[in-house]
Design goal:
alpha+beta; 5-stranded mixed β-sheet
């Protein structure tokens, strides 16, 4: 039987070890391109995840407020952490959820002239979910802003374009 590796061309290929500099540079360039495409695509998913968390946090706050209402037959007129902790709705180691991206606090305003108030507005600064912006209310008319203490406004965008990050515009819903 003839040895297939006895041929000089095949033997020379077997004696070579490692990769050339050009081959290594090509591989590094391909990895860099794939990584940049992945990271650019990932930022959109992150913003969507933050918005989903914000809407979920608003539902949790709504649950806390409804428990408060069952006790007091109205909604709080003070800071939510203080009001809800006073009735043991929140334990000492709990607090109102914070923005997942470290942004502005959630908006809370109580509405109406009755004491205790019978309705309220919750708001969050959404970054990407344009569909939710259509469902929001446009103003805090008849409501007293509690958190943040000033400068926030409720906005509904007919164009579907959310406000720029850092603006004082909030997606708000009234209960």
């Amino acid at each position: 039987m003839k040895n297939v590796f006895a041929d000089k061309g095949v033997k020379n290929l077997l004696d070579q070890k490692g990769f050339t500099l050009v081959e290594m540079l090509v591989v590094v360039a391909i990895i860099a391109i794939l990584a940049s495409v992945f990271l650019v695509g990932l930022s959109g998913f992150r913003q969507s995840a933050y918005d989903a968390r914000r809407l979920s946090d608003m539902q949790n706050i709504q649950t806390y407020l409804e428990r408060y209402y069952n006790i007091h037959q109205g909604y709080p007129t003070t800071d939510l952490n203080t009001a809800l902790r006073g009735d043991n709705i929140l334990s000492n180691n709990q607090s109102i959820p914070a923005d997942p991206a470290g942004g502005s606090p959630y908006l809370y305003a109580y509405c109406g002239q009755t004491t205790p108030p019978q309705s309220y507005v919750l708001g969050a600064q959404l970054s990407k979910d344009a569909n939710a912006w259509h469902q929001g209310i446009n103003s805090l008319n008849g409501c007293t802003l509690v958190s943040p203490s000033s400068g926030a406004q409720c906005t509904s965008f007919a164009t579907g374009t959310p406000p720029a990050p850092g603006s004082s515009d909030y997606y708000c819903i009234q209960f």
